[in-house]
Each structure stands twice: as C-alpha cells, then as structure tokens.
Amino acid sequence: MHRISMLDGAELPVNKVMAVGRNYAAHAAEMNAAAEPVIFSKPVTSLVSPGEPIILPRERGSIHYECELLVWLKDGGTNLKAEEAAALVAAYGLGLDLTLRDIQAEAKAKGRPWTLAKGFDGSMPVSRFVPVGAVDNPDQLEFSFTLNDEVKQKGKVSNMILPIGELLSYISQWITLERGDLILTGTPEGVGPVSPGDNALMVLHNHLEQPLHFS
Ligand code: MG
C-alpha cells in the first residue's frame, strides 16, 4: 500500500492517482494547446515520499517539472455535484507531475496515450500534507516552485479553469472516486527542464515547504 504523510507524521493510504492537464489557461498557452482540461491517471508507483531519493530517468530525453496542488479524498462517489465533491477533500499537498517531454511530444504526434511519459517510476515526488481543517480559505491557496534558487512557477487555485469541486465532479462522471484517491489539479505556467543534481523547493504558502533533490 502506498501512503502519503501528514505534517504531524500520520500516514494515509493512496488508492489511485488522477490528474488533469491544461487546468490553467497560461500553461495551456505555453504548450500551444487548447485551454481544455484533459484527464489522465498516473500509477501509484509514480509516488515518491518526502525524503526518498528522486531518481530521474536517463537517456529518455527532456524531463520537465510541473508543480501542482494535490488533494487527498477521505471518501468517494459517482456522478457527484461540485459541492459534494469538494467536501470529500481531507488534505492538501504539493507534488510534481514529472513528464518526459520528448516522449510525450512523440506520443501526441502519433495519437498515442501519455502513460509512459507521465507514469514512469518516480514521476510524482510529493510533499507532506496539511489537513483541510488547517486551511481557512481553500479558494485562496497559492503555491510556488523554485529550482536552484530561481522561482519558476507560481500557482493560485483561483486561476484554475476547473475549480477543485468541479474537477472532481467531472472525473466522477466517468470514473468513480474512492477514499484514498489523490488528485493532481494541474500546473500553472513556467514548466521547464530538470536535471540530476538540481535542488528545488515546493511551497504551499502559509502551510508547508518541501525541499527536493534530484539524482
Ligand atoms: Mg501536470
């Protein structure tokens, strides 16, 4: 069983991992893509817990960071309304949706799935998580990603195309959500390459900081 860790050290099980591409208009624009959310999944084996080594693939072309807000669900459902879905969120964290960008571009060109480009082992380093009760105003959450002391990405929940409740509602029209599901809510603009030896910092403003080292 794969798990996430809360700030207080408690551990919660991870069931499945769902993700959305293109949930911020400015990132869709930098990828020359329509600002139309795309749902995909990452295997639970992509998860790297805080403190575990982040080992980047070799000889597979460019690897991009995509820093994203993650939500962990305490319960699930099917065909949920946005308000019902939003109420399932029990914890917030940050993570990287690491992407083999050259492999993904090739898959896009050939009309193939992104699975290997986004689901390889170690493709989702995550922070510790903060309980929903510690977040006064989830609609105002902001986060940032710094690579080698340079701020690369700044994200605001208020800039999402599909807000969290609507995103979860949309997924639940197709795929039943369950307790333990971890959802990546999309990346803001500023994605770019990461290499072995790089150091990074994910910050969920007012809540947590997670240093990362890439090997
Ligand atoms: Mg992403």
UniProtKB/TrEMBL annotation:
Q: Which UniProt keywords apply?
A: Hydrolase, Metal-binding
Q: In this protein, which residues make up the domain named Fumarylacetoacetase-like C-terminal? A: 16-198
Gene Ontology molecular function, alphabetical? acetylpyruvate hydrolase activity; metal ion binding
Has the keyword Hydrolase been applied to this entry?
yes
Tell me yes or no: is Ligase among this UniProt entry's keywords. Answer: no
Q: Which SUPFAM superfamilies match?
A: FAH
Q: Which Pfam families match?
A: FAA_hydrolase
Q: What is this protein called?
A: Fumarylacetoacetate hydrolase family protein
Organism lineage reads as:
Bacteria, Candidatus Eiseniibacteriota
